[in-house]
Design a protein that fits this description.
213 residues; alpha/beta; D-Maltodextrin-Binding Protein, domain 2; 2 domains; 5-stranded mixed sheet; 9 helices; 33% helix; elongated; binds adenosine-5'-triphosphate; binds magnesium ion
Length: 213
């Protein structure tokens, strides 16, 4: 039996065609089912539904053999103990720094300056600004980062941006790209050794499906 960790929403939706290519069909949809363990058409494969940011943890400890997680989540987690064989090219977006429309970011990030940054991505933000020699006071948030500069909680935010519509609607502008983000397949290293006969064909089918775009 192998266990694949996915999160609800876009990751589940965009992973479905890849599973299909590997001959794996879930017997229930996570949106309509309350079950956290979903059986598939294959007796030797099951899916578990976890929070997006928890996927690396389940795979790291071997509670799941495989998982799909955003590069944003993997960068925050550190990726220790995880084999990352494949960029799935799904859930694409960008990690950006954004500020209010009327904020002079260039002036605010001169070396030696101090900037207040609100984000859910503390590690990513810390590394980015350290690389620029800018001192930051990091403020941890769990969501709706766009609000922080509007009410004076922070000067800037570090967050994922896809279309930019949310920034625009809130009179914010993206001022720096930190990274291009997409979702990756992650594999528990011990699982790969012990269950290679089941896991390798899944990896191969995913790789083939990604290549065909
Ligand atoms: P939760 O909603 O449980 O707090 P989350 O917001 O991280 O978690 P999702 O919104 O489903 O969960 O995001 C899952 C992954 O999809 C993210 O880790 C990221 O890699 C990617 N992602 C997030 N927002 C976008 C977006 N607007 N466009 C494309 N991909 C995105
Ligand atoms: Mg979300």
């Amino acid at each position: 039996m192998i266990t694949i960790a996915l999160s609800k929403g876009r990751i589940f939706e965009e992973t479905l065609p890849l599973l299909q290519a590997a001959g794996i069909t879930p017997l229930e949809a996570p949106e309509s089912s309350r079950k956290l363990i979903l059986p598939t058409n294959r007796g030797d494969v099951r899916l578990i539904i976890v929070r997006a940011s928890d996927v690396p943890t389940y795979v790291q400890y071997g509670a799941a053999d495989l998982g799909v997680a955003g590069k944003d989540v993997l960068d925050e987690h550190g990726g220790g103990g995880l084999y990352q064989p494949l960029d799935l090219n799904i859930a694409r977006c960008r990690m950006m720094v954004a500020v209010r429309d009327d904020f002079d970011y260039e002036a605010a990030v001169r070396p030696g300056a101090r900037l207040r940054v609100a984000t859910k991505y503390l590690q990513t933000a810390r590394e980015h600004f350290a690389g620029k020699g800018v001192h930051v006071d990091l403020i941890k948030l769990y969501g709706s980062m766009e609000l922080a500069p509007l009410v004076g909680l922070s000067d800037a935010i570090v967050d994922l941006v896809s279309s930019g519509a949310t920034l625009k609607a809130n009179h914010l502008k993206a001022v720096e790209e930190i990274a291009q983000i997409s979702s990756r397949l992650v594999v528990n290293q011990a699982s790969l050794k012990l269950k290679r006969n089941v896991i390798q064909p899944v990896l191969d089918a995913f790789a083939q499906a990604v290549k065909q775009g």
